[in-house]
Design goal:
This protein is of the alpha/beta class. The chain has 16 helices and 9 strands.
Length: about 400
């Protein structure tokens, strides 16, 4: 197995996991595991024990997570076949200023990931092998301003990419749509979440909830089993890991299976500053939401599988429309039924270069904490009162400075 580390291609950013070189490496590793009858868990342990560069170990372990996803797609297909069923997997992709990440990499777009086309190709490949796994992609424009240019709005660009995909892959049965939060508001759609009067009322959360409503009502699938995936627009979490989420959800009868970068067998490439900031954030929210803290650690990863039969109930009880919607979604699911939220170890390759979290991430995190405190009060959580006082003092100081 040592030669597989020596020959591992470089993975330094999310885009690197979508290249032909990396895909060839995944195929080689998969064949080697099969020929030597080595399980994924055994291989992971071997790679961790080998004295090699962190970069090559990261590549190999990420490849293992992708292989695990392919294995789980096969498992799910066989499971459904035995039951005479099929499953629809609707991937909701919220977008705000994601134009460059969903577009191809060029000399003028040096951090482009071609993420949307890559996902469509991957879903098409999995569905051709497993026809009872029906993949759909729903791109939701969260009111993207296109930096003042309509042609650069995320939804406009995504719609063009999807149309081009259909022209080039007319035989594909993959379904994909683009919807716009702004249009839903203008049309007074009943699917728009309560409290959303303008696109500025949403920071990701509003568009995801709109997408959940749309997928569950306007675009209701024919299959008995419907799973909704909340997924970021980029490739930071390789989409081949979606079947792993779905298997966890089905096998353990969960409402939500939450992708986590913080499990013992997770694989991650996170910048040191971002990692430290994330750990601090976790220590704070856990003191505000002790019910949820007993179930999951990583709440801010946009990679979750949701049992669609609970989607309407979840949407009714979620009031947060900005980034902390992710935390309220998990908390509400756990409150609906204890033990219905479980973490799933994933591979995560940071995609920070084009992050839309804001120019001042510290303020963004604090705003989330304020939102989480409101969630704690709304759901009667036994939160830390001393921490509440600190948050209130910090809020007052911020208002005075402004």
């Amino acid at each position: 197995m040592s030669e597989l580390l020596l020959g591992a291609p470089r993975v330094r950013e999310a885009y690197d996991t979508s290249t032909r070189q990396f895909n060839d490496y995944v195929a080689l590793l998969r064949a080697r595991l099969h020929s030597k009858k080595i399980t994924i868990a055994q291989a992971d342990a071997i790679f961790l024990e080998m004295e090699s560069s962190q970069e090559s170990v990261l590549t190999a372990r990420t490849a293992l997570k992708i292989i695990e996803g392919f294995h789980n797609a096969e498992y799910l297909s066989e499971h459904l076949t035995k039951r005479g069923e099929a499953a629809t997997i609707t991937v909701i992709q919220p977008m705000y200023r994601e134009t460059f990440r969903i577009s191809p990499r060029t000399k003028d777009n040096i951090h482009g990931e071609n993420a949307l086309t890559y996902k469509l190709q991957l879903f098409d490949s999995i569905q051709k092998k497993h026809p009872n796994l029906h993949f759909r992609l729903l791109a939701v424009d969260d009111g993207c301003d296109g930096w003042g240019e309509d042609r650069l709005r995320s939804g406009i660009v995504a719609r063009g990419i999807i149309r081009q995909w259909r022209r080039s892959n007319s035989e594909s049965k993959i379904e994909a749509r683009t919807i716009f939060l702004a249009k839903g508001i203008a049309d007074k759609s009943p699917l728009i979440p309560r409290g959303i009067k303008q696109t500025g009322d949403s920071v990701k959360g509003g568009s995801v909830i709109y997408g959940m409503n749309y997928a569950n009502h306007e675009w209701r699938p024919d299959t008995h089993r419907h799973i909704i995936i909340d997924s970021d627009s980029d490739l930071s979490v390789h989409p081949a890991q979606i079947p792993t989420l779905v298997r966890k959800l089905i096998d353990h009868d969960l409402i939500v299976a939450a992708g986590s970068r913080r499990e013992t067998n997770s694989v991650g490439a996170i910048g040191a500053v971002r990692d430290a900031r994330g750990k601090l954030f976790i220590s704070i929210w856990q003191r505000l939401l002790p019910t949820l803290a007993s179930s999951v650690t990583d709440t801010n990863r946009g990679f979750k599988a949701i049992d669609a039969q609970f989607a309407s109930e979840l949407v009714q009880k979620i009031r947060e429309r900005k980034f902390p919607y992710q935390i309220e979604l998990l908390l509400v699911a756990e409150l609906i039924r204890t033990g219905s939220v479980k973490p799933v170890a994933i591979s995560y390759i940071d995609s920070e270069a084009l992050s839309t979290q804001g120019e001042i991430p510290t303020q963004s995190y604090f705003d989330q904490i304020v939102g989480i405190l409101a969630i704690a009060k709304r759901h009667h959580e036994p939160y830390d009162k001393d921490l509440e006082r600190l948050i209130q003092v910090r809020s007052k100081l911020g208002k005075k400075a402004a």
